[in-house]
Automatic annotation (TrEMBL):
This is Probable succinyl-diaminopimelate desuccinylase. InterPro entries: ArgE/DapE (IPR010182), ArgE/DapE_CS (IPR001261), Bact_exopeptidase_dim_dom (IPR036264), Peptidase_M20 (IPR002933), Peptidase_M20_dimer (IPR011650), Peptidase_M20A (IPR050072). Belongs to the peptidase M20A family. Keywords: Cobalt, Hydrolase, Metal-binding, Zinc.
Amino acid sequence: MNALMQRIENRRDDLITLTQDLIRIPTLNPPGRHYHDVCSLVGERMSKQGWKVEMVRAEGALGDSDRYPRWNVVCRLEGRAAGDCVHFNSHHDVVAVGEGWTRDPFGAELDGGKIYGRGACDMKGGMATSIIAAEAFVAHHPEFSGAIEISATADEESGGYGGVAYLAERGFFDPARVQHVIIPEPLNKDRICLGHRGVWWAEIETKGHIAHGSMPFLGDCAVRHMGAVLDEMEATLFPLLAGKRTDMPVVPDGAKSSTLNINSIHGGEPVQDADYTGLPSACVPDRCILTIDRRFLIEEDIAEVKAEVARMMDKIRTTRPDFRYEIRDLFEVMPTMTPEDAPIVRTVQDAVQLVMGKPAEFVVSPGTYDQKHIDRIGRLKNCIAYGPGVLDLAHQPDEWIGVDDMVDSGKVMALTLTKLLT
């Protein structure tokens, strides 16, 4: 064990460089830039070490286009004898930079033991850690049994349909091919994430009647109708959701309740192009669209989640003349939670104890990640998220990943490989 741990320590500079190289490729999603570049970086590195490399474009998947093709890479190394396959899956896309940065978002600056940049924490640091851990393990145990896979996949930040979902539909996560999956999401190095809450996205449209703005009494304002929806949400729906609690170990504590986020609202005249210098036209809005992001608990039924909103809308209709609306599903994901006694959970739990000197904390993510596709499509239940990084830093300005945290997580990953493949 000590020799393997030293191999990880000896690769500290390589781990830093690899993380910086990954961050400096601005794989922004949307729209999906430089996906091929980052997959090539990973694929070429692993190919030089004898790994079989597959570049997979998710042709026809949601978001895929000739301008922004959805590229994924899967690297596999076979052992000397038959055995299980351990797969490390990391998404390579990152969210928009946003405002408030004090450092170059794609500069990958190393300062005070931290590497800064968009995607440093979520999750290029985790990707680099899994690669270094696998390389150190293979160098230490060249006679290992089974197989190791490393994947870098697209579009997790926008649902994963051009990434893990596409691969799962094509058998890459078939339990006959892969037996253990670790997703190095930034859930803190001493935590094991067993799964996530469910999600239902939907659009609520209120309908009105267009008329001249100087005579609004001849029309019917859809925005005013939506105002009534917002009022009713505040009065009844939000308190209802706040009162629901789960036994799932969701973090942070606020996510142990059901939640609803108003993602966007659009009504009336569309926003004009930036070079338009005129005034708006005088019209009564005839439609208003609200997008909701409803996160629900494993104890809740998706049909009841939707029925709560439908009942709220029907209640409003009884009090407002000419109130017309439509609810449209956008997508839904069921909650998932891997059992605490699953093989990958027990193995990583033991490795965390050895490296950190304390028991691992079991948690559940407030938001979904690509485990949903490995579970639902791949039918592979033996899957967790484990990786370096502080979850609260994800999507924030001046996002960073700690080098020491990556090294420690790398040791946990290498020990996990040792326990499962030797």
